[in-house]
Amino acid sequence: MKKRNARRGFTLIEVLLVVMILAMLAAFAVPSIIGAGENAKKKMAAAAVGDTGPIATSLNMFKLEIGRFPTTDEGLAALVIKPSTLEGAEGDNWRKFMEKAEMLKDPWNHDYGYKFPGEVNVDGYDLWSNGPDGQQGTADDICNWKRDTR
Predict the structure, then answer these.
(1) Cis, peptide link before residue 117, omega less than 30° from 0
(2) CA distance 77 to 90
(3) Total-model pTM
(4) Candidate from 12-21, 47-56, 108-117 with smallest mean pLDDT
(5) Do 66 and 79 contact (CB within 8 A), yes or no?
């Protein structure tokens, strides 16, 4: 009779060693993966806040050239496409105030909200992003007014 030198299967110690190594890898990887999602949300919100600066600058340039802010009906599109409502000297002073219409979308690909005259900023305009949920009036909104006033 011949002896069998080859083993069949794994020993309990080998299995426990592999499980322990996988558990250690998971202990290091899971916290960084969880943190990455929160960091991405914060970066996108910061991008939306940063985007409102150039839009506000373009709105102020529109007012300097045309003599008024775009109406709510004209919207932010008036910064890229000449509104049909501009007449006479107003229309002669119009130029493209923003290069691309894509700049009028927030990081979540929703249109920025705009209202003139503003409900909150009664002497100016209201400018906002509805945030990642796309719903106006929720806690994740980004706006050009203080939260407690609305």
Answers:
(1) yes
(2) 16
(3) 0.67
(4) 47-56
(5) no
